[in-house]
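Study this protein:
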Amino acid sequence: LAGMEKQDLGAGYYELAQVRAPPGMDLVMMLRAAGYLGPVGIGELCGN
């Protein structure tokens, strides 16, 4: 499944695919696009 996501989304989004595309993925993508390469507390953003 991860391999399919890598092909569909491209190498730039492979790391995001590894976290199973959580609801906060849009925010993460915005941070990545802004040049933020640090860790993102996706679990906290999702309220898990």
